[in-house]
Design brief:
Length: 579
Amino acid sequence: MATVEEILLPDIGDFSNVEVIEILVAPGDRIEAEQSVLTLESEKATIEIPSPKSGVVKDVATKVGDKISQGALLMTLEVSETAEASEATTPTAEPTVATPEVQPHRPSAAAPATRPAPKAAGKSADSGETVSVVLPDVGDFSDVPVVEILIAPGDRIEVNQSLLTLETDKATMEIPSPQAGVVEEVVVKLGDTLNPGDLILTLRAEPGAETSPPAAREADTASRPSPRPTPSQTATSIPDTAAERSTVSVRAHGEAERRQAPVLPRPEDMTAIAKGRKPHASPGVRRFARQLGVDLARVKGSGPKGRVVKDDVQNFVKQALTQGAGAASATALPFQLTSAPEIDFARFGEVELTELPRIKKISGRHLHRSWITVPHVTQFDEADITELEAFRKGQQEAAAKEGVKLTFLPFLLKAVASALQRMPILKASLSGDGEHLIHKRFTHIGVAVDTPKGLLVPVVRDVDRKSLYALARELADLSAKARDGKLLPGDMQGGCFSISSLGGIGGTAFTPIVNAPEVAILGVSRSAIKPVWDGEAFAPRLLLPLSLSYDHRVVDGADGARFTVLLGQLLGDIRRLLL
């Protein structure tokens, strides 16, 4: 038999009217004892409230944005008698302080006897005295890993300034300094696991520096009884013993505020203090972001008060992979890429330093971003252009009368445009959120041009609507403008596919880099006469090497192969362009 019980907000210490920032369950959900049901946030702490019982959620009585205090109704829970009996012998969970900004400095029974005695409140430390700062009591935790170190030797720190960050499965804790002074030595490093009493750092106290009085604070805390639910509150709640344990860390914030006025930092200290400020996110989100190498400071939170949630991190990475970080350099991407080592080549011989051309600076940054954010695949193939080349040479005289030089490139442009019309996925683009495809009803093709100042890619518009002669004239004009440095920004925008031809130079194959946000680029190398078996004998044929690089998020391998096969067929028999 099942009963419906009310779940109330338990004793959470010296907090009232605390805002609800996350609801973690919904009506109909089956939840277990100790499972978090909602998250509260005060100015000092983020607190996850667990369920004291297993059961099925009947109704949630709060919503995001509500401000609640001890005894407030959270939800109603349908609890079976068998589950209630099994939980009677199981200790009830306590609220977890997820991301406290300041943790109390309380002496631990496990601390070694060599720990320095705490100073009395308001008493100044002796000038030049070396103080050993150890990990205080952090509650029922042991072997807690260090995930951030917020100070360095030589830093001047103040009382309560965060020194390092520890993280368990349930909470992220910033450990404050009990003493102002200058850091002499940091004895812990990232990844170390700590227990109460472990040495963190040594500190040289400064004249007049104040210490945090843990003994006085503990005595004051012990003398102040924590609030209890009234006898009229008969609904299910967390036992007093669990509530008392959960209030130790959060109550210390109010005590710390009362013991002395805040210390105003000097301007030169602001950099060190800023290291301790972190984006607003839960421990799980911070861990997820670290695994992906994402700097949370660059992620815009969509939760209440700008809180960063897991979806924000995922969307940030998707956007970065889709279109790069949109910054001026590859180092601005969200990934923790190591820079190349600086080497003094003058040690090995004579060197000369010259400025990298401006065009190469700009294109280099774009190519680098495209290379590391687009998953490249390159499909290699060959096209038999024996008949096409014979036809082209036969039309040279007629083309000269029209005032144009008929090269192979106009034929290639027409064939590519026809192939794109039949397989439009190759000229699509990903949307900014990486969830949609942008299909283009136009066929503008970029053609890479080698200039003395670097590579430029002017765009030939509406290739599918222009004749071979018109394309030949436009290519000649764009190439001349590119080499003379007279291309306008609009001449290099709007492309949906690119061609890079090295046939006039040489080579057999290469891997061109996709010109994002396009999803494919065709590389063409020098054609060569090769023997091809025609079913009866080998015949000499003129073969053109093709190298198609594409964005594998949009173009599958099968589509990439189909495109090069189709292009080979169109180039092999130009009559197909009329079909």
